Amino acid sequence: MDYAEIVEVIAPCGLNCGRCLAYAGGEIRRLSQELADRLGPNFAAYAQRFTGMDPVFENYPAFEKLLSFLAKGTCPTCRHGECLFLPCQVRTCVQEQEVDFCFQCSDFPCDHTGLPPVILDRWKRNNELMAQHGVEAYYDHIKDKHRYP
After folding, report:
1. How far apart are CA 144 and CA 19, in angstroms?
2. pTM above 0.70, yes or no
3. What is the reported pLDDT for 147?
4. Which of 53, 78, 82, 83 has the fewest Cβ atoms within 10 angstroms?
């Protein structure tokens, strides 16, 4: 992928939107839709009958609800919508600073991201890696990694 394409799937904080459970164009959405389609619209009735074979099927209604959520994938990425993590100020800041990623800003690292400590550490590390190795190399390094380590 070239830089412009990478900017579309990597958030300004360095998270890979392409691997996010809420991303409209993501693999999680696609695979969840595929699983729901393969199970079919009537599987709940079968799951109820399957509880005699394995009690785990008693949990099917909760699973079906979660699967339905994952299959929706409504987020267009924070570059094209609002960040799903409401306290995050990163998107607004990079727009104001007219940069693609935080490391490109002369104020990086800053203290006005709105991120809690655990995410703040990841934000800083992601941006330091992009600054050190370049955006393209960073993308190549993370593109197939889990979003939720």
Report:
1. 8
2. yes
3. 82
4. 53
Whether residue 130 is predicted with pLDDT greater than 80 in this model: the reply is: yes
In this structure, which long-range contacts are made by residues 2-10, counting pairs with CB atoms below 8 Å and at least 24 apart in sequence? Answer: 2/136, 3/135, 3/136, 6/135, 6/136, 6/139, 7/79, 7/100, 7/135, 8/77, 8/79, 9/77, 9/139, 10/101, 10/135, 10/138, 10/139
DSSP three-state, residue 15: coil
Task: Say what the pLDDT of residue 114 is.
Answer: 93
Q: Decide: 110 and 90 in contact? Cβ < 8 Å.
A: no
| Bridge partners, 10 (sequence order) | 16
Residue 69's nearest CA partner among 29, 27, 25, 31 is 29
Averaged pLDDT of the chain: 93
